[in-house]
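Justification of computing resources. Each target in the renewal requires a structure prediction run like the one illustrated here; the chain below, 380 residues long, is used simply to show the kind of job we budget for.
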Amino acid sequence: MDTVKLYYENAYTRAFEAAVLACEEAKNGWHVILDRTAFFPEGGGQTADTGMLGGVRVLDAHEKGGVVYHLTDAPLPVGQTVTGEIDWADRFRKMQNHTGEHIVSGVIHSRFGYDNVGFHLGADGCTIDLSGELTREQLDAIEDAANTAVWANLPVTARFPSPEELSVMDYRSKLDLTENVRIVTVEGIDRCACCAPHVSRTGEIGVIKLLDAMRHRGGVRIWIKCGFDALRDYRARYAASAAVSALLNVPQAEIVSGTEHLIAQRDALKFDLIAHQRRALEAQAAALEPTEGNLLLFADADDAGMRILANAGMEKCGGVCAVFSGEDGAYRFVMASRTRDMRAFAKEIREPLSARGGGQERMISGRCAAARKLLEAYFR
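Resulting structure tokens:
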């Protein structure tokens, strides 16, 4: 017997009573079947309702063959009448977002002819995948039109039309449906096949915000937030903006220019630091004493700086000039020699120094996992 779906009769049902028809242990809890339910199961790109049922927690719900299975964290006695309570705050934010998605998709379809080919509504807003690309200017215009529809407080209705009605009805759908099709209509904006609960008037959405967009499979993916989700998102962004404003000591309206100024200062200091480090390395290279054997150097330098020392060192030594930067177990190196084939030398040090690298006949570079004491003993 199919479960009576109270969320179709009234999307605003928060609490209800139902009889437990079955309860079986499942992988992550128990599957409970009721004679009727207000818990919307996962479907149509929307996650399931959660809440309480007879004093136990409803973690998830799914529908199979017309029957809704409630995943609970504890069993319930078969035959008992229990009270179900929907997590209303979560349900209502989903209703706001899902209805907002219908409005956005409807506006896009009527203006550009694009189809909604993917939709996901989760714990943090929703995404819409569309069959065509949109510019930032077009997205702004869509956002304006969508919010105009919200503020018009248009009626939102849902019903199951007869097959005859459906055959002549113009509506959006991702699937080729023929029976038991539920049509959700936002007056003058959109008509779409959908199984999820929605608000009864668009004014309940409050606001629709298109947050971001990116190219996706030949079309575009849009991130949107509606109602309470949009409010919380704005609150978080305002707090972040205020924090950055305080750190930069500039008004919030000037945080972009303030950040650009800070980055320019950082880049100038970085350039000065690099120039200073380069001069110090050149002075260190010039001060190297000649030696007949190998020359081992440790320096706080980037790859270019190590090459400066290696080039200078190989002119002062009869063997290999090895320059290391880093710490035990995580050294970078550059090695050079006028007398050794460094490509062959790279193979020689692979095992004893746990070294990996390569290069040219006169110079090699890479990384090694040896300790400083081992390096000093090897090159001594």
